[in-house]
Each structure stands twice: as structure tokens, then as C-alpha cells.
Amino acid sequence: MIWDTHAHVDDTRYTDDFPEMLGRAQAAGITRILNVGYDLPSSERSLKLARECDFIYAAVGIHPHDAKDVTDTTWDALRELAADPKAVAWGEIGLDYYRDLSPRALQQEVFIRQIELADEAGLPIIIHNRDAHEDVYRIVKEHTPKHGGVFHTYSGSWEMAKQLLNLGFYLSFAGPLTYKNARQVLEVAEKVPSDRYLLETDSPYLTPEPYRGKRNEPAYVREVAVRLAQARSLPLEEVAVQAWQNAERLFKI
Ligand code: NI
What we know:
By secondary structure, this protein is of the alpha/beta class. It has helices at 18-27, 40-52, 72-82, 104-121, 133-142, 158-166, 183-191, 221-231, 236-251; strands spanning 2-7, 30-36, 56-60, 87-96, 125-130, 149-151, 170-173, 197-199. The chain has a single domain, classed as TIM Barrel (Alpha-Beta Barrel). Helix content is 42%, strand content 17%. An eight-stranded parallel beta sheet has the order 1-2-3-4-5-6-7-8. The mean pLDDT is 97. The structure holds nickel (II) ion.
């Protein structure tokens, strides 16, 4: 049993084979999926899927790319979505200085606002951090979420990881762990405490080896689990169960 804790299966890339894609996930033992929003429409779609499908849960939130499109009514709408029992996290939120699609000051403001909203809603947060380590760390240190959170597709150093673990965060591993140049993230995978790691695909992005180049889908989270198990010299089963229990603790399911 593996839980893909970060996917975007509402993406139009699944329109043609949605039931088959979910069938492949179930056949591969992926029995839970957390579908993550990045703007208001995708948050609504995530919750709709979660209501329709037993084994799908939803996260709602505004990605830093979309910080520039936020209005006052966005927060009211998200608050309402977050109150649904199938909404188990606030995200994905954070900072992205790689693509800089919204002004950095605004990204920070929207990130902090959503940590506050997650606190009010009683939800943990899912953090997206790209090339913004210093500012993300400063913000989560000053505004540590009351209900915890996870750094999704963690890509930083072990030094940074230790600081985040000290603040109570979880670290989630995705396809990049299987890539040939994964030295830095492999070190984190080896050293992260057993009660702090999660597994994810970030489907349709970040396809793991040996499927790299194809569209990603939740069934492939198995490859990430296999690599994590190798890195920790543990049986696949043990890593999968541990990651599942960690996710249940964080998302309170
Ligand atoms: Ni994502």
C-alpha cells in the first residue's frame, strides 16, 4: 500500500484515460491519492474529485505563480473549500524564485496569509519551494504553521533539511530521487528520521526513472518508494508503511 501524497490528476493530460490511470494506480498498490490545488479552479476540482472518489483527498491553496491573481473573494472561497472533511491540507503554497511569475514581495505576502488561513482551518500546509530557500526558511521560522506541514519534492541540502525537521516539518520525495544526479537528495533520503518522510509523484510532472520522458501518474510512485527503500537499506514494504503512517499523522486521516 502506497499513498501518493501529491498529485494533480485533475490535469487535462488525464482527460482521455482517467479511469484507466486510476486503475493502474490501484493495481500497483497505490490506494490513496492526495490531489493538490494550485489556484481556485484546481482547488475546486481537487475537492470535487475527493468527494466523488473514496481514496482521493484534496488540498486547497494558491501556488506562488498565481499570487498575482488573488483577490479578497479568493480567500472566502478557499476557506469554504477547506471546511470540507475531504480537504486535509492547505497547498500548494510557498515561493518560486526560479520562474518568478508573481512579484516576490507579493509571493511572500500570499504565502504568509495562507499559513494563517491554514492555522485557522486546522490544516497542515504543503510547501512549494524553488530557489527561495532563505526566504522560505525565514517565513516558516517566523510563522511556523500550527498544524505542521510538508516540503514537497524536497530538493535542498541536508543542512537545510535539519533546520526544517527542527521546526517539525515533514519532507516528501518524488521522481528526482530516482535521477542519476540525485546525490544531494539521496543524502537527505538516507538521513531523514523514519517518522518524517512522505512519498509523492507530483503527477503529471517529474516522472521517475525508468519512465522519464513520459507523462507521470500515481502508479509510478512505486519507483520513488523503491529508491527510498534502497537508500535506507530497508524492504520496500517497510518504507511504504512508514510513509503511509507519517502521512496519516500529518493529514490526520
Ligand atoms: Ni505540485
